């Protein structure tokens, strides 16, 4: 079974600074997808960024970028120019290609301080 | 375009009672999913429906049943609620894009 580990239960960052959230995963698969989701206090799950394992280029969405290290099975999220609205729980998730079972990490609670 | 809707938003049940959580999507997606989220944990898949007329178990299916009523609707039923089923339940609708509903907070006393 695939497992996803987020080793940082809580993190904080000053507004406008950069923060990196860690995620590691365990799989024997070669084709898969990785995701970062944001869950603000409203509970809504919002997709932040998605990475296909076959793509070597790291995905980027505006202020959000990932560092995907396939050999190390590492998938970290970097948030640049942090904003107060980035305060939320962040979940890393893994899904095998052509499979419906998405596995989530336990989450990292990020607080952006003014 | 409402996306994914879930009803109810909140529910309190007594042990042994039954209820159905409803999920509907208006994006014409084939795949729909039910998850539960417990404190300090990520979402865990209960059941999913890859297409209309099919359903399959996920990671934590015990104590639940599902029905894919049509392409739009996917319901989750608790036949005899237990305190261990106290959780927040999320529905997801997916093709290439993924959309989650707002969640249902269920408390079983």
Question: Can you put this structure into words, describing what you see?
Answer:
The complex is a heterodimer of chains A (114) and B (109). Chain A is 0% helix and 54% strand. Chain A has 114 residues and is mainly beta. In chain A, strands 2, 5, 6, 10, 11 and 12 form a 6-stranded mixed β-sheet that branches. In chain A, strands 3-9-8-7 form a 4-stranded antiparallel β-sheet, with no helix packed on it. In chain A, a hairpin with a 2-residue loop joins strand 7 and strand 8 (64-69). Chain A is globular, with a radius of gyration of 14 Å. Chain A starts with a strand and ends with a strand. With 109 residues, chain B is mainly beta. Chain B is globular. The chains are: A mainly beta (114), B mainly beta (109). The A-B interface holds A 4, 42-47, 91, 93, 100-107 and B 31, 33, 40-45, 48, 50, 56, 58-59, 88, 90, 92, 97-98, 100, 102-103.
What layout of secondary structure does this protein have?
The complex is a heterodimer of chains A (114) and B (109).
Chain A: E1 3-5, E2 10-14, E3 19-21, E4 24-26, E5 32-39, E6 46-52, E7 60-61, E8 64-69, E9 74-79, E10 88-96, E11 102-104, E12 108-113
Parallel strand pairs in A: 2-12
Antiparallel strand pairs in A: 1-4, 3-9, 5-6, 5-10, 7-8, 8-9, 10-11, 10-12
Chain B: E1 4-7, E2 10-13, E3 19-25, E4 31-37, E5 43-49, E6 56-57, E7 65-68, E8 74-78, E9 87-94, E10 98-100, E11 104-108
Parallel strand pairs in B: 2-11
Antiparallel strand pairs in B: 1-3, 3-8, 4-5, 4-9, 5-6, 7-8, 9-10, 9-11
Name a few traits of the molecule:
heterodimer; A: 114 residues; mainly beta; six-stranded mixed beta sheet; 12 strands; B: 109 residues; seven-stranded mixed beta sheet; four-stranded antiparallel beta sheet; 11 strands; globular
Shape of chain B: globular
Strand residues, percent of chain A: over 45%
Number of strands of chain A: 12
Largest interface: A-B, 17 and 21 residues
């Amino acid at each position: 079974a695939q497992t996803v580990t987020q080793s940082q239960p809580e993190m904080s960052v000053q507004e406008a600074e950069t923060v990196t959230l860690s995620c590691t995963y365990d799989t024997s698969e070669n084709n898969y997808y990785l995701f970062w989701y944001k869950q603000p206090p409203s509970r809504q799950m919002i997709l932040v960024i998605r990475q296909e394992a076959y793509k070597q280029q790291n995905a980027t969405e505006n202020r959000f970028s990932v560092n995907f290290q396939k050999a190390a099975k590492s998938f970290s999220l970097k948030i640049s120019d942090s904003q107060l609205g980035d305060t939320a729980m962040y979940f890393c998730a893994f899904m095998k290609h052509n499979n419906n079972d998405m596995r989530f990490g336990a989450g990292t609670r990020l607080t952006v301080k003014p | 375009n409402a996306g994914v809707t879930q009803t109810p938003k909140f529910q309190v049940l007594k042990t042994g009672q039954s209820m159905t959580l409803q999920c509907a999507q208006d994006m014409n997606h084939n795949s729909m999913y039910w998850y539960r989220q417990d404190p300090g944990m990520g979402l865990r898949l209960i059941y999913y429906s890859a297409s209309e007329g099919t359903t399959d178990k996920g990671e934590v299916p015990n104590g639940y049943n599902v029905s894919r009523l049509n392409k739009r609707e996917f319901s989750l039923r608790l036949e005899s609620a237990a305190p261990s089923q106290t959780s927040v339940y999320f529905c997801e609708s997916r093709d290439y894009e993924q959309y989650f509903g707002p969640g249902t907070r269920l408390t079983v006393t």
